[in-house]
Amino acid sequence: MTAQNSRTRPYDSDDQGSDTEGLDKRASAAPPSKRAKATPSDLTVFTSLGLPIDEALTKSYTFFSPLPSSDPSDEYVLGVDEAGRGPVLGPMVYATCFCKESYYNELSSLGFADSKQLTEEQRDRLFARLQQPDVLEGNGWSIRCISPQDISQCMLRRNKYNLNALAHDATIELLRETLAKGINVRRVFIDTVGPPATYQKKLETLFPGIKITVAKKADSLYPIVSAASICAKVTRDAHLLNWRFAESKLQNKLSTVYGSGYPGDPNTIKWLRESLDCVFGYPGIIRFSWSTCVKILEDKAVHVIWADDEDAPANTKPTSRFFTQTQSAKGARNPGRPRSQFFGRRRPIDLGVTL
């Protein structure tokens, strides 16, 4: 679990990336965490693909489906969308779906639509359909799953790296890796993050020769973006439904009924208040940069002040002296400073905390 720095400034809605449009509809929808825990068969589609759904998600990862069999003359259309941009907890997942131009009409006929307009069962069915051999002949997909810890670290570091920049970089990384795998992408459709014209110009500069369209509500306009939306949403939901806390002693102690995860959902706020440890804060599922989280920590948790180096008195010895050995004027190691006993420990340390 992570203690919150009380000096942290709550981010405003632009920094958070909280998508307020349609919030009521999403907040009232039954979240995946309200279902019964998945049985092993429910995870088969993920485990057979090699996705780490049943592992503690402490690091971001990228995954590509099996690639379609193709030759250099095949041209592809690709769509990009995300899931989990606005919630205060869980990963943010960016996804692509790409298919041969000759297969695009057939893909469009499968019934893909904006994932928020489909039921959970419909999304699961469409995602499973994408894994069928006949569909994989002309189609592929990829995801960039960004862990809550990485989101927090990016947004709370000294040189601010906001959610828009994180989203742009995830998209660019997926596009570059798709091209590097030999997929001849000729058209790209992307659901915008920020002003569409600015974002489109940025991508056109990075990917000359590819026709790029960045639009609002692209997941409702272009079936290839809708398919990417399905991949992103189903993957994120699976992670939350089967969430394994990195803080192992919390696994069977904390509720996994998170609500929708959006700050406007009373069920999410209830979970945040009930799951707070007044000293250690929250487990790693939480995005600590969200103002909702910061506010609860400031109101309910122990106040913590972290002394910055520049605030320390001039005669204060640096902490780094405990981790390094000094050298004499002749360059020899100084034998007078013993190595800390901390570094002599070889046994693993269990940092799990019981609330």
TrEMBL record:
GO molecular function, one term: RNA binding
Segments of this protein annotated with the region Disordered: 1-39
Protein EC: 3.1.26.4
Cofactor note: Manganese or magnesium. Binds 1 divalent metal ion per monomer in the absence of substrate. May bind a second metal ion after substrate binding.
Domain of life: Eukaryota
Catalytic activity: Endonucleolytic cleavage to 5'-phosphomonoester
Protein's GO biological process: DNA replication, removal of RNA primer; mismatch repair
A Gene Ontology cellular-component term: ribonuclease H2 complex
Keyword annotations of the record: Endonuclease, Hydrolase, Metal-binding, Nuclease
Limits of the RNase H type-2 domain: 75-302
PROSITE patterns found in the cross-reference section: RNASE_H_2
Residues the record lists as binding a divalent metal cation: D81, E82, D191
Extent of Low complexity compositional bias: 28-39
Function summary: Endonuclease that specifically degrades the RNA of RNA-DNA hybrids.
Family affiliation: Belongs to the RNase HII family. Eukaryotic subfamily.
Protein name stated in the entry: Ribonuclease
The organism of origin for this protein: Coemansia erecta
Organism classification: Eukaryota, Fungi, Fungi incertae sedis, Zoopagomycota, Kickxellomycotina
